[in-house]
Write a structure and sequence with these properties.
Layout lengths: L5 H15 L5 E5 L2 E4 L2 E4 L1 H9 L2 H16 L14 E7 H13 L15 E4 L2 E8 L4 E3 L2 H7 L3 H13 L6 E5 L2 E4 L25 E7 L2 E6 L3 H12 L13 E4 L2 E4 L9 H27 L4 E2 L3 E4 L5 E8 L4 E4 L3 E6 L2 E6 H8 L3 E3 L6 E4 L5 H11 L2
Parallel strand pairs: 14-17, 16-18
Antiparallel strand pairs: 1-2, 2-3, 4-6, 5-6, 6-7, 8-9, 9-11, 10-11, 10-12, 12-13, 15-16, 17-21, 18-19, 20-21
Amino acid sequence: MFRRQKGFDTELRRLLIELTEDQADIRPLDDDTVQVGELVIGLANLRARWNQLPMPDRTPWLRETLPSLVSPPPIPARLQSTRPLRPGIRPRAMLEAARLANLGSEIHPERDHRALIPHRPFGADLVTVLLWDTETTMSVIDQAQLDDWGAEFDDLLPVAVDNLSELPASGWTSIYKQAYTSTEADDYAGARMLDPHFLGTTGLEGELVVLHPNRSRLLVAAVDDAKGIAKACEAVFEELGAPSPVSLRPLVGRPGNWRTLVLPPSHPAHAIWQRLTHLDRQMIHNRLRQPLQHLLGQDVSVGEHEVVESPDGAYHSVTTWAEGVPSLLPRTDLIRLETEWGVVTAPWDEVRQQVGPLMEPTEHYPELWRVVDFPRPQLLSQLRHTTGA
């Protein structure tokens, strides 16, 4: 069925068959997604939580969790109460994954705007969405649900933010002089930033640096505290592999006005910031690579996005352009051009300048470039001579 992790996959398959009583109703879409009837269930968070649990607790937890995923309680057709509404901060990649799933669905193959997810930009590659939160499930509100309610996203979002602000918040733990980590154990650590007063409870003023690696973790540092920024970035690495990832990329700004943090090479936190930025781009690409590949079939290959460390300690992103393989290449620092007689690695901008129309931009998110024909040997020799690759 799946090939990522034998123990988890075996138990998942067995329990899904128990729940559905129909093996034919279970169809893997890729290593991280399974379709059960009309529902598409993501497996990444389930796997991450499975790996966190002691061995004896894993199967009982999965048995308890799956029913609400296979047969989730329906969101009411009429909006009689707004109390379960909550705001959520999610990666833009989630919207794109939903769009790709809708395009590739055998049930609803057309691009139905009602299946799209209303949202508002939050900052960088993050968006604000509406959630319906119950004791057993948390559902993202799509356009079809808003249409059924006769409601507008912009009208309900302030209500959702107010609902969240009424929930208890336990505060912050200091990790350096002007750097803090949230102490909440729920899924709304980042969403609380939508309350304009929330970050002020740290005691920090002015522009802030924030990191939101997963739904239950938020890290904050003063923009002028270089060591604090480095400590916050280091703490993100402790969250790698945790359930419900959001973003590894630091943001800077104030409530309502967030942008991507850019640090110069002279900044003490530059190396760790650079690594996180590259890993975040890799995470976004990897989340969408398999769904896009499934949609495109085998005629076009969606290239890999690698992160490598150079001898001087700097981090770079690399993708591979293989001769004879029509591909969609992610925008990276370097391109590895592979032929039967050797490999040339060169900076993206240098390759783009030399090969011209052989690289064609597309409208995909994240940025992908279409390549079909391979550069002539003379061009490869020139790249090798120019770059020393």
